[in-house]
Write a structure and sequence with these properties.
Strand order of the largest sheet: 1-2
Number of strands: 6
Helix content: 55-70%
Order of helices and strands: EEHHEHHHHHHHHHHHHEHHHHHEEH
Distance between the termini: 65 Å
Largest sheet: 2 strands, parallel
Structural class: mainly alpha
Length: 442
């Protein structure tokens, strides 16, 4: 794996970019790799903290997945594979008594499905994806993933297991955690508004840190588990347990992973002005699928490409894959400290809840942005009604599931099925109507 030196290796000329096959000097490349780790940090660690997975194990498979992605894309596609938020809702629903093994099986199976999609795309291209999921459907699935998690976020905000009361719903509320959630949100928006560049792009992480320090001062945080943990040690590995009934809750997430990977490849190709990179779409899907499968087999969270890292590349104009090799190695090294993982578990629910109020909403709005960018017309009823029904289903069900015999379906699965079936049904019926009207006019 060789990279050519860009320019003098010290700077990027005005109007130029450091392409995937180039790099700056190694000290600068190592610094950029560390920056990518920071960029993915807040979002990647929220997933295991929320779902109860081991953060160190998640970081290990995140780093390994990144290196696998770089290998399978021929070292041409820069990307960091962090934890996927799309899996949070089905993972929470699939966990039984805190046992994650069933969810791990579903994660591994979902990864296999995504890898198969990647092989199909390598064979026939992406045209069938656009036919199955036009912009209104693709944006709708991404939006409902974020909005489906609204209840989970709110339950963290109020620290649901605490005492107290919250009128009119009657849910218990913890005043300290409610305050911490408010501090978290305010910190994030203030930092995002005041700073540009890398500081603005990691506003969620910095807001996390500010609120965490406030929690320490308030006496909400206990460091007993951190003191007891070793400095160096292997992450805890967990084997999956086969349970076919949970798969329907997870398979709709494949659509989101497809959208994220396709969007990532197109973004990089556009930013470096190299359309040939779009030919790597199938490989990217295959690589992310295999990385997710490996993570599921060992106890890690599912992986996906990260918009945060696209932001870093856009800001620095450095798209070198060398920086991502550094980021992957750094992530693996960090995963080998149990004390580091124990520290992450000291984050109070209120801080997590405040961050997820922002992050889950952002996920939903990414879907809305897809509609805006592709100029989806909600004046057309075939666009309006399927999306309307799917979003309300996703938000209303939250983490609830409906059982059909041995199979259980969560809000994401049911809402995804609704938008797919209703859109294509209405589209077909409108074509029949328009064809009949043309025949009558003739």
């Amino acid at each position: 794996m060789a990279w050519t030196i860009h320019g003098d290796g010290k700077s990027v000329e005005p109007g130029a970019v450091v392409r995937p096959g180039e790099r700056l000097s190694w000290p600068r490349t190592i610094g950029l790799g560390g920056q990518h780790v920071v960029a993915m940090f807040g979002a990647t660690f929220l997933v295991p903290i929320i779902t109860g997975f081991d953060p160190s194990t998640t970081l290990l498979f995140s780093g390994l997945g990144t290196l696998l992605f770089l290998l399978l894309t021929g070292n041409r596609m820069p990307s960091y594979l962090g934890s996927s938020f799309a899996f949070i809702s089905p993972v929470i629903a699939a966990k039984s008594g805190g046992d994650i093994s069933t969810a791990l099986f579903a994660i591994a199976a979902t990864g296999v499905a995504l890898a198969l999609v990647g092989l199909l795309v390598m064979k026939v291209g992406t045209g069938w994806i656009h036919a199955l999921m036009p912009p209104v459907v693709m944006g709708g699935v991404v939006a409902l993933i974020g909005f489906n998690l609204a209840q989970a976020s709110w339950n963290n905000v109020i620290n649901l297991d605490a005492g107290g009361s919250f009128a009119p719903g009657g849910k218990p509320v913890d005043g300290d955690h409610l305050l911490l959630a408010a501090v978290t949100v305010l910190s994030i928006v203030v930092i995002a508004a005041l700073f540009r560049g890398i500081l603005g792009r990691i506003a969620v992480l910095l807001g996390f840190v500010v609120a965490y320090l406030v929690a320490v001062v308030m006496g909400v945080v206990s460091f007993d588990a951190v003191k007891a943990a070793d400095w160096v040690g292997l992450p805890e590995l967990t084997s999956p347990s086969v349970e076919w009934s949970v798969l329907p809750m997870f398979l709709p997430v494949v659509f989101v992973l497809v959208a994220e990977n396709v969007g990532h490849v197109r973004s990089v190709a556009h930013l470096v002005q190299d359309d040939s990179l779009n030919d790597l779409t199938g490989r990217a899907l295959l690589a992310d699928g295999l990385a997710t499968t490996v993570a599921g087999l060992g106890g890690g969270s599912a992986t996906t490409t990260y918009g945060e890292n696209i932001g870093v590349m856009s800001a620095t104009r450095v798209f070198s894959t060398a920086a991502y090799w550094v980021a992957g190695v750094v992530a693996i090294l960090l995963s080998l400290s149990p004390k580091f993982g124990a520290l992450l578990f000291t984050i109070p629910n209120g801080v997590i809840g405040g961050a997820t109020l922002v992050l889950y909403g952002v996920i939903g709005l990414i879907g809305v942005r897809m509609w805006i960018d592709r100029q989806v017309d909600f004046g057309q009823q075939k666009n309006l009604f399927p999306v309307a029904a799917a979003l309300i289903l996703a938000m209303g069900m939250g983490n609830d599931v409906i059982a059909f015999g041995d199979f259980t379906l969560g809000g994401i699965a049911i809402a995804t099925a609704a938008i797919l079936v209703l859109y294509h049904l209405m589209n077909a019926l409108e074509r029949v109507r328009d064809g009949r009207a043309t025949a009558d006019a003739g």
